[in-house]
Amino acid sequence: NTGQEDNIVTLQTDFNADPPSYTDYFERIETISLETNDSSLIAAPSKILVVDDRIVVLDFRSSTVKEFHTDGSYIGQIGNKGQGPEDYLTVYDISYNKDKKYLSLLSPYGVIVNYTLDNKFVDRVELPSKPNYWAAEWIDGKRMVTWSAVESDEPGVSLIDPYSGTEIMSDWYNCLEFDLLSMNPFGTYNGKSYFAGPLTNDVYEITPDSLKLSYRWDFGKDNISENYRKSLRNIDDRQTRHDKVREDLGKDNHKYDFKNNWQTNKYFLALMLVSPSPHIGYKTAVYSKENKSGVCFSKFKEGMTFIPVYVNDEYVLCQIPETELDIYNGITDSKLVYNEDDNIVLAKYYFKK
User: Which pLDDT value is given to residue 3?
Assistant: First the structure.
């Protein structure tokens, strides 16, 4: 719905800003060491949720969901892997239904398996038929928005009622090779849900009628241009197009891919991939609503890498690299020590009030 462009918010942001101090945004930092035992280990966290006094972590590598108290003590695993009606085989995403108070585990094969946070099975729901499901987010107690990387003649975003199988709205017809760049396109703020379009700076509000353009990141000369997207679409061979998208990441015409977008009462934030595997690099964009300006950076002036994994109005959670434990020890008076088999450690950055 690009006809709404006159009403959108433009976030003018310096892509190559000098590193700020963490004190520019945050009043203090706490550290949370997630308990280490044979059952609690997390290999590759791909999504973290905080629900009441619990931290819920999706481990993409093992396709399991672990639950911790907010002090880091281990509670247990949500659900079980298996072939039974109360089990799951693969989990690509997790979402919490606040109204019904259960956690939904999304299978790429079009199934959500629901559990309470006390690990009690609720039900198993078949979603409308799609080639694959990559992400799903509850909008309210009855409606869920889903994301699939599909061919350009199929809609990638669907607003559905999972229990009736009703598709309320579908949209986003795009190039498959672009859409394969995104795994976490949804965000929620102030009762509204948003979708960040792959290989674009545009973020859309999800409505019952359409995707309504809401805000746009603007990095000036560092923006991904429409001419570049057009040149990619003009490549007929899909594998060639896919390889070029991957190879161009970090170069002049394709400097970033958005991985997450968040909004708080004071800030817009976005996590961007800026260099590909095996030497993966990230930048985080932070835009102040009060100052109407933004900056992109990889590390704070004090040396901490800033890669948000969970954001709300009160704080930001980041995973601490093992090489930076000493920096956090000096700033927070923690006594963090890394051992080879230890679980991940989180930093909790509290926004200034």
Answer: 52
